[in-house]
UniProtKB/TrEMBL annotation:
Taxonomic lineage of the native organism: Bacteria, Pseudomonadati, Bacteroidota, Sphingobacteriia, Sphingobacteriales
Keywords annotated in UniProt: Membrane, Transmembrane, Transmembrane helix
Pfam families: DUF983
Originating organism: Mucilaginibacter calamicampi
Protein name: DUF983 domain-containing protein
Residues annotated as transmembrane: 60-86, 92-111
Domain of life: Bacteria
Length: 141
């Protein structure tokens, strides 16, 4: 990340997505608090830097449930196969306990990154706009 002569920040898409930054300006935070903070998960309504409205239309983040579902399946299959390779156990309760507790522990991660994936890669028309990442960008929404 560096600032160009014309006051434009160059921020990579990977850096912005991993840090849950606004997909339009890659500077403002999408979430109001940390992933594993003690307070509940809270998403900013608009980008604090450029004013982009994250929930593009009412109920938009219902679609993130499908992304979150895919994350959950991938995590559970990986864990179950890994657990079987490591322990060789045929006791179903070990799998139930590990998979259910992992679903709880990973839920803040899935909540956050399902929305990031939805806004970054599954929403047509939402693209990075270098003008929005300027320090003096006027918030217009
Ligand atoms: Zn923004």
């Amino acid at each position: 990340m560096y600032t160009l002569a014309d006051n434009t920040m160059k921020i990579s898409q990977t850096y912005a997505a991993v840090n849950a930054k606004c997909p339009k300006c890659r500077r403002g935070d999408m979430f109001a608090n940390g992933m594993y903070s003690l307070s509940s998960q809270k998403m900013n309504e608009t980008c604090p830097h450029c004013g982009f409205k994250f929930e593009i239309e009412p109920g938009y983040f219902y679609v993130a449930m499908f992304v979150s579902y895919a994350f959950n399946i991938a995590q559970m299959v990986t864990l179950a196969v890994g657990l079987y390779i490591l322990t060789g156990s045929k006791n179903p309760w070990i799998y139930v306990a590990v998979l259910l507790s992992s679903a709880v522990v990973l839920s803040p991660f899935n909540f956050r990154y399902s929305r990031v994936v939805l806004l970054y890669w599954l929403t047509p028309g939402v693209h990075y706009d270098p003008n929005r990442s300027k320090d003096d960008y006027k918030r217009i929404g």
